[in-house]
Amino acid sequence: MISDFIFGRVLIIGDLLLDCYIHGSVDRISPEAPVPVLLRAKHSTVPGGAANVAMNAAALGCAVDLVGLVGQDSSAHEFRRAIGRQPSIDLTHLVEDPDWVTITKTRVLSGRQQIVRIDEEPSVVVAPAAQERLIAAALVAMDRADVVVCSDYAKGVLSDAVLQAVIQAANLRGIPVVVDPKRRDLSAYKGAQLITPNRKELAAATGLPVGSDTEIHFAALAAQEQFGGDVLVTRSEEGMTLLERNGRMTHAHVPKSEVFDVSGAGDTVVATLAGMISAKADLRTAMVIATNAAAIVIGKLGTATVSRAELSAALKSKIDRDGVIATLAQAQAMIEAWRQHGACVVFTNGCFDLLHPGHIALIQAAAREGDKLIVALNSDASVRRLKGEERPLQDEQARAIVMGALRDVDLVVIFDEDTPFETICALRPDIIVKGADYTEDEVVGGDVVKSYGGRVVLADLVSGRSTTSIVRKMKTAPKTDEPISK
After folding, report:
1. Catalytic residue of the set 15, 90, 152, 267
2. Whether residue 267 lies in the annotated active site
3. Suppose 14 and one of 110, 151, 382, 432 were both cysteines; which one would form an S-S bond, judging by CB atoms 3.0 to 4.6 Å apart?
4. Domains along the sequence of the chain with CATH
5. pLDDT band for position 320 (cuts 50, 70, 90)
């Protein structure tokens, strides 16, 4: 899927950080004070802040120009050494200022547990002369950029003057701008295409609650009123929500993963979005891919990157049976890729416990309605709630494998709710197909699909065919001790 996209060149401007890690072990308390004593084992440094965005973009396959401010201190030397490991990042646009202290964050860890963080930051603001040099460097680099990223860590590089100059220049050139914001006043980023606040930043900027989906919706609308462009809200384990300027809202679920460290995850998201935008992907596709990248990076310790190979493998690893059985997040990514090629996506759902001719007729009818067919299966728990404790007769994986083996089925997803409403909202199929024993008004999700121009189709049923009737017949069939003939 990722191989379908050719990434372009990304200009990244923002606050540059050096992330240092001191690793060791603690097995005693100091006699001098009630504090742990760390036996140091190793020390490592990696680029952070806007530089981590650059590292992630380069790891995905983008060519990168990095603009930012460093001092002339030992930390600046170490920063250049650390980021120099990635040859795809052009460092010729870095600005040095002898009065600037290179921002350093040192984390002390025992195993995977962070004990303390030590920060070194400048005590002065960015000088006007340095701001002018930053603007000049950005304008030179912009001549070959496909997308611009403003990575704001509120450390002073993205001043009003720098922001306005960069965004205005990008607008004149028709280059999209993505902003990872830190300011409460989002109007400072007007002119950019997209901002990516997290839940906390959205609440701070709007003064609104951001707990539920509805609250996120209203807060994103308020942010959009300030900013004027597209708003993508990162919501940790709840995924991401995109509010486009046309009012369309889409949610992407994040794949389940073990969380070791969330530091730098926002950088990975912004880098992935920028890379996808540089490859001419639409924002919904970019968001789905970015959720998968975030799921990978939070499983790593410390400031880390996600490579194109890792992302491609992750997108494939949770899809079984040659890409037919998928999680909801994987299905979203697959569907967006289909839509890049103009495919019409059809959806149907059911328990499909014992596959019979009635099921086959429904699947065939659904497949005839479009180019790609998604079948949503009730999970085992969902079937039990609907049909009773004796059902299903086959577990969800067995049912998914059987369904996925049908040549008319392109994708199988399993949902745990009583109805597929949430799945339909997430996947946004063009057509829903159900049996003619329903009316259009009774079809779950039908109103959702119709709201964006889709339609509901009622397929003819094969009379006398149902799993319930088969089970009843099996229970009432006379028992025999005769051996089964071979």
Report:
1. 267
2. yes
3. 151
4. 2-317 (3.40.1190.20), 328-474 (3.40.50.620)
5. very low
